[in-house]
Amino acid sequence: MNADELAQSIRSKHDKLETDCKQTVLAVELLALQAKLAALTARVAQLERDELERTQTQDAKHDRVKPR
How far is CA 30 from the centre of its chain? Predict the structure, then answer.
């Protein structure tokens, strides 16, 4: 293998490693975003349950206070 072939081989391997590294970083970022989305989805569901419970409690209080 001459110097040009060796240099080309090294560049090719470097480019592949760089691409693999970028793909790994993107995969990790995607996992982090998916985890954040799951946490936010769970939080929204909790807030919706809390709101429903608050509304039902207020409705029940309102029904008890209604004049006859």
Answer: 7
- Mean local confidence (pLDDT), 12-36: 98
- Which positions ≥6 away from 9 have C-beta within 8 Å? 1
Concatenating the DSSP letter of every residue in 3-49 gives HHHHHHHHHHHHHHHHHHHHHHHHHHHHHHHHHHHHHHHHHHHHHHH
d(CA 36, CA 42): 10
pTM of the model: 0.67
Here the contacts of 52-58 (C-beta below 8 Å, separation 24 or greater) are: none
